[in-house]
C-alpha cells in the first residue's frame, strides 16, 4: 500500500527534513467535518490589532496574482516537493490593511472553527501566500479550498485550510493543535513537531 503513496528515496535529500518521506500524491489530513464554502460566499475578516476589515473573493481576485512553486511538509511525516500554487502574496495583501506595530503574533481562523497561531515574523515572509489554485486547478475543498494560507517554511498545519480570519495579537496565543500538544512554531528542519510546554 505505502509503495504507491511514498517514494523510496528523495532526489534531493537536502530538501527533505529528517523523519519525512516523499509522497507521490497529496494526502488529505483533516480534523472534523470538511467545510464546503463557495468562492462567492467566502470572506476573510481582519481584526484585533489591525483596522477591522472584511475581504470578499472578488477583493482577493483584484489583488496582484502570483504563481508559486514550494515544498510542503506535513507533521504526519510526508513531504511533497515542487507543489505548484497560485494566489496572493502575504506581503502584497499587507498593503491593503493597517496593522498596529504592537502586533507580534496572529491567530488564523477558519471555517469550521479551526485555529492555528503564527508569529508575525513567520507570517510576513516573502514566500508566504494565500492560495486559491493548486496545479492549475481551483484549490479542491479537501485541500482547503476555496482559500488557504501557505507557509512553506513551517509544517503544513500552519498553512490553515478554509481560512476566513486573521486576528492580530500583542502576544502568542495557542491555536487548536498547539493546545493539543503540537509545537507553537513548527519548523520542519528543526523537527518542531510537539510542544515542550
TrEMBL record:
Domain Oxidoreductase molybdopterin-binding, by residue range, is: 32-177
| Family matches, as InterPro entries | OxRdtase_Mopterin-bd_dom, OxRdtase_Mopterin-bd_sf
What SUPFAM superfamilies has UniProt attached to this entry?
Oxidoreductase molybdopterin-binding domain
Q: Where is this region: Disordered?
A: 1-21
CDD domains, sorted: arch_bact_SO_family_Moco
Bias class Polar residues marks the residues at: 1-10
* PANTHER family, per database record: OXIDOREDUCTASE MOLYBDOPTERIN-BINDING DOMAIN-CONTAINING PROTEIN, PROTEIN-METHIONINE-SULFOXIDE REDUCTASE
| Protein name per the record | Sulfite oxidase-like oxidoreductase
The beginning of the lineage is: Bacteria, Bacillati, Cyanobacteriota, Cyanophyceae, Oscillatoriophycideae
Amino acid at each position: 500500500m505505502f509503495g504507491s503513496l511514498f517514494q523510496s528515496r528523495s532526489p534531493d535529500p537536502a530538501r527533505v527534513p529528517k523523519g519525512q518521506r516523499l509522497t507521490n500524491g497529496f494526502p488529505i489530513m483533516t480534523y472534523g467535518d470538511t467545510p464546503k464554502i463557495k468562492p462567492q460566499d467566502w470572506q476573510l475578516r481582519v481584526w484585533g490589532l489591525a483596522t477591522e476589515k472584511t475581504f470578499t473573493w472578488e477583493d482577493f481576485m483584484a489583488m496582484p496574482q502570483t504563481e508559486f512553486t514550494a515544498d510542503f511538509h506535513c507533521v504526519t511525516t510526508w513531504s511533497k516537493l515542487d507543489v505548484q500554487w497560485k494566489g496572493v502574496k502575504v506581503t502584497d495583501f499587507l498593503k491593503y490593511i493597517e496593522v498596529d506595530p504592537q502586533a507580534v503574533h496572529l491567530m488564523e481562523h477558519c471555517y469550521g472553527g479551526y485555529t492555528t497561531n503564527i508569529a508575525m515574523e513567520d507570517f510576513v515572509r516573502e514566500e508566504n501566500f494565500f492560495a486559491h489554485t493548486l496545479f492549475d486547478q481551483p484549490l479542491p475543498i479537501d485541500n482547503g479550498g476555496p482559500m488557504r494560507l501557505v507557509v512553506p517554511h513551517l509544517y503544513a498545519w500552519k498553512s490553515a485550510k478554509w481560512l476566513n480570519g486573521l486576528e492580530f495579537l500583542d502576544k502568542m496565543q495557542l491555536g487548536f493543535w498547539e493546545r493539543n500538544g503540537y509545537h507553537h512554531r513548527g519548523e520542519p528542519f528543526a523537527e518542531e513537531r510537539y510542544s515542550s510546554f
